[in-house]
Amino acid sequence: MANLNRRAFLGAAAGAAAQAQPRPPNIIVLFADDMGYGDLSCYGHPTIQTPNLDRIAAQGVRLTSYYAAAAVCTPSRVGLLTGRYPLRAGLPTNLGPDSKGGLPLSEILVPQVLKQQGYRTMMIGKWHLGHDPAEHLPTARGFDSDFGLLYSNDMIPPWVKTERPLELYRGAKAVERVTDQSSLTVRYTEEALKFIRESGNDPFFLYLPYAMPHLPVSAPADRRRKSRAGLYGDTIETLDWSAGEILAQLKRQGIDNNTLVVFTSDNGPWHDLPPRMIAGGVERWYTGSNSLLRGAKGTTWEGGLRVPFIARWPGRIPEGRTSADMACALDMFPTLTAAAGARMPSGRVYDGASLIPFLSGEAPSPRQSFFYFAGRKIEGYREGSWKLRLPGGLFHLDRDPSEMYDVADRHPDVADRLLSRMKMFAAELNTETSA
């Protein structure tokens, strides 16, 4: 009888200990491609309607000074998944369909850290971090499974000179040639819902970098001509539908309250299209809005890197909060690592910090500065409200977010301080500034 009582006591203690260790949260990162700062209705678009994404913002936090890691596709993804400036991580420029190599294999990605915490991991959508050789593919970089494109949806004729077709991949195998892109967002959403359903009691990390609204934009037949903003609006509203389907699946499975959902974009809208893009039905106005910001994709003006960011985590992120405090994609690696209860890898320099206390409303943002890269070159630096861009000048972004008024002559000490910091960081990374 004494042994039975002891076993019962130990069993009860083990159960209590298990209850004291809450299950790690599920993590979903929805990552739009070339979406502008002003493309969501919660960011002020007058005609595009995004009720589901607006709901994420209303039930969580919306940031108005959040930056992508770079102003173009590949390095932006590098920064998000490694927590390091793309130049530091060894891949500061875009890859193409015929590129060899990719993100150095020595780099550690978010899913590799989360897998060590027992997470199931899946990538659905656009990879763009290397595909030849196969050691650079998602399933060799921490993802248990994947489904999607190897690179951008325009990297085929008539927009890019290549003989390689656009194909959907699972692991290292091409499973389907893409001849109609209009169903991509729907296909990705179906895969996401299946992954969430099959995750069972295991915590999961879903990384969903959409193909859209990167040109050529498209939407499924039943969603065309629905938006007052035309085909581009149809494309954005289809992404909003996708987010709504994912939120509904979380609720159906009863895991809504234990899931962190983040939505953001890889860079700003693609304005001033190169001549190669005006083909195959693409029109110059099939692009997004940077709202009041100057510049667009490919530039280091605010419109190139400042993007929407909304996040929802019931019980951890207070509802209905908007903040102008600075944050960026480099902070996502430590943020997701902290959310999962994992430790940051040792032996390397990281350029971000966990945003969990900030998003939870417990502390100001840890980010007080940000460097704007154009490939290998540093073209700008923000510190607090001040931004120095070369060429361009000194701007106070709280008073002048449109970067209209160069006030370097009024504040030469500030301009000198920021330029000195740019040069110091350039020396650290063995690169140069635009000065």
Verbal overview:
- The protein is α/β, with parallel strands linked by helices.
- The chain has helices at 2-20, 51-58, 73-82, 86-89, 110-115, 184-198, 230-252, 302-305, 332-339, 356-359, 412-428; strands at residues 26-32, 61-67, 101-102, 120-126, 130-132, 145-149, 167-170, 173-177, 204-209, 259-265, 309-312, 321-328, 369-374, 377-383, 386-389, 393-396.
- The protein has two domains: 23-367, Alkaline Phosphatase, subunit A (3-Layer(aba) Sandwich), CATH 3.40.720.10; 376-428, Arylsulfatase, C-terminal domain, CATH 3.30.1120.
- The protein contains eleven helices and 16 strands.
- Strands 8-7-6-4-9-1-10-11-2-12 form a ten-stranded mixed beta sheet, sandwiched between helices. Strands 13-14-15-16 form a four-stranded antiparallel beta sheet, covered by helices on one side.
- Helix 6 runs parallel beside helix 7.
- Residues 6-10 and 13-20 have low confidence and may be disordered.
Which structural traits does this protein have?
Alkaline Phosphatase, subunit A, 11 helices, ten-stranded mixed sheet, single chain, 435 residues, Arylsulfatase, C-terminal domain, alpha/beta, 27% helix, 16 strands
